[in-house]
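Hi there, hope your week has been kind to you so far. No rush at all, and the record is pasted right below.
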Amino acid sequence: MSAILYSRAYCQYVCPLSLAVRPFTWPKRKITHRFSEKWRDIAYALLIVTLIGTLAIGIAGISTFTGLGLFCDYCPFFVVYTDFSNPVGFVLNNMPNSIIWFGSFLLLVVILALYTGGRYWCAYLCPAGALLGLVGRKSIYGLYRDKEKCVNCGKCEEVCTMFIMTKVLQEDLEEVPKQSCIGCGLCVDICPKGALSFGTKTNHTLHTHNRVKYILFSLTLFFIVTYLLVSFLG
C-alpha cells in the first residue's frame, strides 16, 4: 500500500535500517560522492537473484535463515519483525543468529554511509528497495521540481542521501524518479526558492511533505501492527 501511495516511503519511515543509519547520513556536511546511475541496476540484479533463489530453494525444500526464503533473508523487515513476532522463540533460539545477521547488515550499511555520506545500501544494493521501486514507479504521490523557480543552486543535490538530484538537475527533469526517492523531504526543506514540492501529477501544491509523511507512516504502521497481531494471535 505504501508503495502505491509513495513508491519507497517504507524505506524512510518503516525500515529498521533507516532509523539506525540516519545519524550517519544526516547531511551535516555536503554529500560529495557521486555514482553512475547504472549502479542502481545492481539492486535489480540482486532482486532477480534473490527471487529466483527463493523459488529454487522453495522447490528444493531447503530451509533458509528465516524459513521464509532467500529474499526474506536479505530483507531488513523480515530479519527484524519475523523474530519479534515470536518473542519466545526469539529469546530461546534465534537471538544469537539474529544479532549476527542483522548486526552484519547494520555494520555494512553504516560503513557505506560513513564513506559516501548517503544511503548507499538503500540506493544501490537493497533488493527490497528495488522491489518497492518497481511497484511504485506509478505511485500516486511524487516529488516534483518547478523548473521556473529552480535556479540550479545545487543545495538539493548536496543533501540528497539517495543521490538522485544530480540526475534531476543534469537532465532538467520535472518529476523526480519515483523508483529512487524515499520521500525524506530534505531537499524540499533546504530549497531556497521553494521549487520542490510533493504532490500528484495534476497537483504539485503540497509544498510541505508533512501531510504525505503522516499519511504514509500511519498506513505502514497500521499494516505492521496488524501483521504482528496476527502473528501473536495466530
User: Anything to note?
Assistant: The mean pLDDT is 76.
